[in-house]
């Protein structure tokens, strides 16, 4: 039995996950060593060593969730636990939170910090996938099948936005919408839901206008100005984006060489976190960028493929939610550092420095590998030897069923 299960694992997705994490570890050391010494007075390998511990812990969680049957997450007790834990964690940020970069998103636990909003994203994926998979019989009833889980999603996004962390709140909302779109609802139901959303937006519009001074702070408006005119605001709002452009342009095809970045010498803020791809482009050129994009694209597309192959609605929605989380977060990070969208402060999956991020991604990849394993196991060993069971309870005595397998001897 164990041998059959091990043969069913998707080792391609496990290999790509590990390669991206190891590549990110190398680039974190290269991007952070100058900042660690000059700005913090730490050893040059400070962030490298911390991320190495993060990866070790994350890999243990990956193994656990890759081996633990994902269908157990559908139980009512587990769903109650993750919803309470997600809400409590987000509320605890307001009380015990640690502010960094104008956002109170972290809770200090000894020498380490955790970011509850990262775990909330995964909680939303599991909760929505489980609830909508159970509501398939009445998935198109707004009051009973659609709105209750949607209210939880909106409440979680609201708590994240209050930190404030609009980037993570936006990602979480998009993930939820993706799961809802793939839950099996009819287009008519989705259209009604869209109209309800527009009505809610119209109701909230006056509140947004009245509280515009608190919602549209100088920091948020500055990011818009920096996005619209980075070189015109290059000494303030556009400073980070301009230096990102310089790093990307300096790398060219082959790059300046590993460890040879100029922008990481204090010119590009957050070089080892949100803007690590700019350092990759500068040091390793197009080849480094293509390596990262290929790996992330493979995981996203593989997740979508796993979703389409799953016979279990819960597993299918889990896979689409996880691949959507990685794809959306990657787009927002890369869009910000390349000037396609305003900067949001979202890390690049598997590559950027961050303990909470890599832990959540490792758990998500373990669940994805587990869903894939169950798919392949059922296809190889269950359906191969399964004989359809005839429904004889509705046949009259003496009648003959026309289904060919019923009369086989």
From TrEMBL:
Its EC number is 2.4.99.28. The keyword Transmembrane helix applies. It catalyses: [GlcNAc-(1->4)-Mur2Ac(oyl-L-Ala-gamma-D-Glu-L-Lys-D-Ala-D-Ala)](n)-di-trans,octa-cis-undecaprenyl diphosphate + beta-D-GlcNAc-(1->4)-Mur2Ac(oyl-L-Ala-gamma-D-Glu-L-Lys-D-Ala-D-Ala)-di-trans,octa-cis-undecaprenyl diphosphate = [GlcNAc-(1->4)-Mur2Ac(oyl-L-Ala-gamma-D-Glu-L-Lys-D-Ala-D-Ala)](n+1)-di-trans,octa-cis-undecaprenyl diphosphate + di-trans,octa-cis-undecaprenyl diphosphate + H(+). It is a multi-pass membrane protein. It holds the Pfam family FTSW_RODA_SPOVE. InterPro entries: Cell_cycle_FtsW-rel_CS, FtsW/RodA. It is found in: Membrane. Residues 391-409 have a biased composition (Basic and acidic residues). Residues 388-409 are annotated as: Disordered. Keywords: Cell shape, Glycosyltransferase, Membrane, Peptidoglycan synthesis, Transferase, Transmembrane, Transmembrane helix. The chain crosses the membrane at residues 12-41, 53-71, 78-97, 117-133, 145-162, 168-186, 193-210, 275-301, 313-332, 352-374. Belongs to the SEDS family. FtsW subfamily. Peptidoglycan polymerase that is essential for cell division. This is Probable peptidoglycan glycosyltransferase FtsW. It comes from Siminovitchia fordii.
């Amino acid at each position: 039995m164990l041998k059959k299960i091990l043969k069913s694992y998707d080792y391609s997705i496990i290999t790509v996950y590990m390669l991206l994490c190891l590549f990110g570890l190398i680039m974190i050391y290269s991007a952070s060593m100058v900042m660690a010494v000059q700005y913090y007075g730490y050893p040059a390998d400070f962030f490298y060593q911390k991320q190495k511990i993060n990866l070790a812990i994350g890999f243990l969680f990956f193994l656990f969730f890759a081996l633990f049957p994902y269908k157990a997450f559908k139980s009512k007790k587990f769903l109650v636990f993750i919803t309470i834990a997600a809400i409590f964690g987000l509320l605890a940020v307001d009380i015990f939170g640690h502010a960094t970069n104008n956002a109170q998103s972290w809770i200090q636990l000894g020498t380490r910090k955790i970011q509850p909003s990262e775990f909330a994203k995964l909680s939303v994926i599991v909760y929505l996938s489980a609830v909508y998979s159970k509501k398939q019989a009445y998935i198109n009833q707004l009051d009973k099948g659609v709105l209750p889980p949607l209210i939880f999603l909106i409440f979680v996004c609201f708590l994240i936005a209050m930190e404030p962390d609009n980037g993570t709140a936006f990602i979480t909302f998009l993930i939820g919408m993706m799961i809802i779109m793939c839950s099996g609802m009819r287009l008519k139901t989705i259209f009604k839901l869209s109209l309800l959303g527009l009505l809610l937006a119209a109701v909230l519009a006056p509140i947004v206008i009245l509280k515009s001074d608190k919602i549209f702070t100088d920091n948020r408006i500055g990011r818009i100005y920096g996005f619209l005119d980075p070189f015109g605001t290059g000494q303030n709002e556009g400073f980070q984006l301009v230096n990102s452009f310089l790093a990307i342009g300096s790398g060219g095809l082959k790059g300046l060489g590993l460890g040879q970045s100029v922008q990481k010498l204090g010119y590009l803020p957050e070089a080892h976190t949100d803007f690590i791809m700019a350092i990759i482009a500068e040091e390793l050129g197009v080849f480094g960028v293509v390596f990262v994009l290929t790996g992330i694209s493979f995981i996203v597309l593989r997740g979508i493929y796993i979703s389409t192959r799953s016979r279990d609605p819960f597993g299918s929605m889990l896979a689409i939610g996880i691949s959507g989380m990685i794809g959306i977060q990657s787009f927002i990070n890369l869009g910000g550092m390349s000037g396609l969208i305003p900067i949001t402060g979202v890390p690049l999956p598997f590559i950027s420095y961050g303990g909470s991020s890599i832990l959540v991604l490792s758990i998500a990849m373990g669940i994805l590998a587990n869903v894939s394993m169950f798919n392949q196991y059922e296809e190889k060993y269950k359906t191969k030897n399964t004989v359809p069971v005839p429904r004889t309870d509705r046949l009259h005595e003496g009648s003959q069923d026309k289904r060919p397998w019923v009369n086989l001897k």
